[in-house]
Amino acid sequence: MLGNSVCKDPKLVEANDFLFSGLHIAGNTTNPVGSRVTPVFAAQLPGLNTLGISMARVDIAPWGVNPPHSHPRATEIFTVLEGTLEVGFITSNPENRHSRKVLQKGDVFVFPIELIHYQRNIGYMTTLLPLLLLVVRIQEL
User: Fold this and answer.
1) Does 93 show up as a binding residue in the annotation?
2) Does residue 26 carry a pLDDT above 50?
3) Percent of the chain, pLDDT > 70?
């Protein structure tokens, strides 16, 4: 077992363990925050288990938000495929400074590991973000 996923017996591995279909389907953003994350983690794509990477599709309705959150063991990088997006993060102690930027279609942004961050659609069309999470493994000595 690694993390929360059980490693599959190598003799039972098949091509479908390395395929996920569905990121072309828009997420339903009719909820209180106006966003939907479609994850592609090891639970959805078993071939990712132990690789230290994952992906997601994030749909954000006009004026919706992907609420503040952090990834304790991962760095996040994404590109804006559609829409206009305000992104921001809070720096670590002792400053706790808010940094923000407005992104347009084609822009790429990265959130460093552990920092609290958010994305907010400030346009009139749904924003689409494919994002990649890169897990940093800290080895015990």
Assistant:
1) no
2) yes
3) 91
